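Tokens as discussed.
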């Protein structure tokens, strides 16, 4: 059961897992590289491997406490690489999260008018689902995941078709739940049209 959850998590969060692995690799290689360049140098304060890993974590997180820092030219070049990597990874993480949020919002805001013949499409989708269920023992894990997603999308489409919509007569905004007043123009919606 736990391995299924781990598989699902890594499959749905591929970009985040990749960034986490990349961060871990940069910390390991950056820490080891700084340790190798600094530990034998006179005046260096990164003399233990644990200090080097601490320095790498603090540097990639762009915190930079200043308790450990490289003093050699090679150590400083490695520090620049780790700093820029930390900034880049943070930017990629924010970008990944923003893309997800925009995709979710986009799917919620798709107008129903763009759906081409939904009842015909639903009939074909239902037939396809029935055929796949009849052969369920032969489905791969990926095909099974696709089947589940298809069923969820079909259910969502069918539920949206049966919803009653209310339309503001003044500004034309459509509501799925009937509010007392229009949030756009403030009109009393007790006499609104059902769409």
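Sequence:
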């Amino acid at each position: 059961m736990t391995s299924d959850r781990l598989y699902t998590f890594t499959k749905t969060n591929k970009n985040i897992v990749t960034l986490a692995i990349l961060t871990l690799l940069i910390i390991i290689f950056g820490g080891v590289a700084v340790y190798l360049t600094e530990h034998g140098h006179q005046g260096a304060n990164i003399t233990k491997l644990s200090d080097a890993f601490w320095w790498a974590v603090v540097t990639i997180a762009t915190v930079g406490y200043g308790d450990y820092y490289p003093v050699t030219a090679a150590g400083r070049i490695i520090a620049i690489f780790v700093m820029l990597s930390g900034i880049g990874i943070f930017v990629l993480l924010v970008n990944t999260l923003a893309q997800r949020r925009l995709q979710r919002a986009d799917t919620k805001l798709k107008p129903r008018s763009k759906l081409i013949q939904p009842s015909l499409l639903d009939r074909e989708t239902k037939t396809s689902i029935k055929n796949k269920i009849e052969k369920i023992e032969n489905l791969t894990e990926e095909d099974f995941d696709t089947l589940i997603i298809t069923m969820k999308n079909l259910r969502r489409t069918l539920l949206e078709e049966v919803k009653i919509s209310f339309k503001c007569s003044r500004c034309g905004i459509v509501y799925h739940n009937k509010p007392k007043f229009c949030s756009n123009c403030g009109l009393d919606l007790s006499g609104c049209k059902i769409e």
